[in-house]
Amino acid sequence: MDSIDKKAAIKNVLIRYLDEHRHRKTPERFVILDKIYDIEGHFDIEYLYTKIREDGHTLSRATIYNSIEVFINCGLVQKHQFNTKQPLYEKSYFGKQHDHIIFTDTGEIKEFCDPRIQQIKNTVEDIFDIKIENHSLYFYGVKKNT
Amino acid sequence: MDSIDKKAAIKNVLIRYLDEHRHRKTPERFVILDKIYDIEGHFDIEYLYTKIREDGHTLSRATIYNSIEVFINCGLVQKHQFNTKQPLYEKSYFGKQHDHIIFTDTGEIKEFCDPRIQQIKNTVEDIFDIKIENHSLYFYGVKKNT
DNA sequence: TTCATTGCAAAGCGTTTGCAGTCAC
DNA sequence: GTGACTGCAAACGCTTTGCAATGAA
User: What is the CATH number of the domain that holds B39?
Assistant: First the structure.
């Protein structure tokens, strides 16, 4: 699946969600989602806003805040609270599920995957009789100076 | 070990940390730490501030912000960013290590322990050649309506 | 037509900062 | 004595809100 197919598929996820929830399919929402899916890695609202304005679109920060809330609710975007003061976001569709390591000295962030987190999730779901929709796992540490 | 012993032990952890880092042992720091260890569960700065003032101590919010930073650095307090807008804190000594489940509909928070998180931690430490000092794992979900 | 959504600017509010005064060492 | 720490209030900055205008359905 190439980049254009992916964009189309993502757009469809949004359309389906908006339809189901009787929300309007405004052009702003599609522009914002499109730009988010151009960004690799983590970003903050200001970066996204600047990027959209640079591309000649005029829309307000308020709309970005609104829209990103929608995207989080339909699973297209994830919000992270690392140890920065404001939250960072990242697209979360078609990407491999991953967790984060935060280096407490440099602020650098790395990603990793471990299947055992799924097993823990399953256990917790059984024990508490709940449905887990999402998780976040952060390790905080420093590089060994070997 | 009874409650008084625990308080004394915690105080010693702080004293050792302050000595090692050439920080001053101000009365405010001890008052704040003491109050934190009276609180069961999660709390925010405002709650802590009110509690301390109610007990007749006069100290400022700024000092609480400062002190809590110190406590986090010496492992006596943990800071959580759930899906509330401001962070919540909790004491983290003598307490069993635990992770959190956040109910996205009600906002309720539950705690659980799973030893496999330790195993993941060990693996990640080996693979990345790092020392992990801390972690946080949050599951977001809803109760099954059975 | 209707009302959800947008845009702008103002307001909100938890946190940080500046600085004078204090006190741990 | 001295400089780290405190207290107060002002400043900060990200986010939310109010409200009139817009446009999706």
Answer: 1.10.10.10
Is residue B54 located within the same domain as residue B76?
yes
The pTM of this model reads 0.91
Query: Measured between CB atoms, does B22 come within 8 Å of chain A?
Result: no
Give me the DSSP letters along B58-111.
---HHHHHHHHHHHHHTTSEEEE--SSSS-EEEE-SSSPP-EEEEETTT--EEE
CATH code, A119: 3.30.1490.190
- Rounded to 10 degrees, the C-alpha dihedral B35/B41/B46/B50 comes to -40
B10-55 pLDDT tens trace: 999 999 999 999 999 999 999 999 999 999 999 999 999 999 999 9
A17-CA/D9-C1' distance, Å:
47
The answer to whether A146 faces chain B, any CB pair under 8 Å, is yes
Shortest Cα–Cα distance, A2 to chain B (Å): 32
Boundary-marking domain end, from A58, A73, A91? A91
Structural domain for B36, as ranges? 3-91
